[in-house]
From TrEMBL:
<dbReference type="InterPro" id="IPR015915">
    <property type="entry name" value="Kelch-typ_b-propeller"/>
</dbReference>
<feature type="signal peptide">
    <location>
        <begin position="1"/>
        <end position="23"/>
    </location>
</feature>
<keyword id="KW-0732">Signal</keyword>
<keyword id="KW-0677">Repeat</keyword>
<dbReference type="Pfam" id="PF24681">
    <property type="entry name" value="Kelch_KLHDC2_KLHL20_DRC7"/>
</dbReference>
<keyword id="KW-0880">Kelch repeat</keyword>
<protein>
    <submittedName>
        <fullName>Galactose oxidase</fullName>
    </submittedName>
</protein>
Amino acid sequence: MSRNPLVYFILWILLQVLVKINCQMTPFKPSVYYRHTATLIDNKLYILGGWDLNDIPLKEFFYLDVSVPFNTQELSWQDLSNINMVPPHGYAASVKGGPNNDTLFLYGGISTDQTMSLVYTFDSQSIAWSIPKIAGVNTIRKWSLTGIISNDGRMYLWSGKANTGFVNEMLILDTINLNWSKGSIINAPTPRMNYGAILLPDNKIIYIGGGNDDTTTFNPNTLNISKGTALTLNEIYIYDMINDNWDIKVTSGNIPSNRASFSVVLSM
């Protein structure tokens, strides 16, 4: 074999190209299992953070393009983890907001990284993360809550858990003007986490269920409560974003069992 250094150099370049091509052809398989956030922006479902099967927090960030047909058994995830500046975390809240309604806002969550900021933003057009400077009231880190975004770009963050315990407050983040404020908690329900929440067309938010028992665990196979308790579904709590007030309604019919950590979808 020739000992010409140029030959070895060319072979090394070819090897690097083959490795890169092979990596690009290998489909990305997420490790995240639960406690991640999911945010839909311009037909792309962005998944961030969360825990794996061993309850280890992850730094994964990826998306699924839902504008094209896809097979649920072989999802074509696009990995963006290499640009993710958010530390491994879980139990955070996220919404789509900003001046052009194309920015992912991430709030709170739990992380072992003490440098994790309270809020991060991801610009889906420039594909870049940043830490925004937000004015207004002093805020604390909360987790296990749901963010609801209004039609005028305000992110509503009710209750949740903090280092001091369950927090009964309505925290509001203006994602356009970047300032904090607080809403009324008069007649608000008891503080809780892992509740269901959904925005109605009349600018009202419905809250239902959830938990206020730190000992609650669920059977991973059946999702039934194996220890502790969850809150009842015989009442729903309605927050009026326009008039900044709360109302309570009693449910009827065949009321489901108590539950927490569930999904809520509005059917029109």
